[in-house]
Amino acid sequence: MAYQHILFAADFADEALRVGERAKDIAHKYGARLSLIHVIEDVNISLGGGYELLPVLPDLPDEALLGEARKTLDEMAHRLGTEDAEQWVVSAPSTKEGILDAARAHGVDLIVVGSHGRHGLALLLGSTANAVLHGAPCDVLAVRI
Ligand code: AMP
Question: In ligand 1, which atom is closest to the CA atom of 130?
């Protein structure tokens, strides 16, 4: 089966470029469309018991934050040489949901994420790669970082 639409989930960690290179290579091999996504998790903290007087935090990331993320994602696309790829910055309750919703909405057939291959406590707590894998409507490639 030839992949047609590959989604690279980009955090802005040092290793992200290496994961992106892999997504780019695969897209090139299959002649597939490539899209880049960065998720900003919604800030939604509810404080109880005595903290009611603290200012209420907004649920949605503000425009400045979204703008910064768009800029950083665009810089990453340039460094990868994938300026033609679509770039999506979305806000969602969780990174997993942001990635999976976009994958479903845009008919993605391969999601590429980085994986630290953690074990022990970190594994029990879960990782983005694990979370994405468990709800994915398509194949997921976890690139070891
Ligand atoms: P983590 O489990 O948080 O170490 O992240 C593992 C991988 O999940 C990263 O290499 C990215 O591919 C993806 N990822 C993590 N955070 C984000 C984010 N905010 N937006 C998009 N992808 C992300």
Answer: 2
Widest CA span in the chain:
58
- Residue whose Cα lies nearest atom 17 of ligand 1: it is 11
Q: What is the pTM of this model?
A: 0.88
* Domain 5-144 indexed as CATH 3.40.50.620: yes
In the reported structure, the alpha carbon of residue 31 is separated from the centroid of ligand 1 by a whole-number distance in angstroms of 25
pLDDT digits (tens, 9 = 90+) for 120-138: 666 656 689 999 999 999 9
Domain range summary for the chain, segments of one domain joined by +: 5-144
Residue partners of 125: CB distance under 8 A and separation at least 6: none
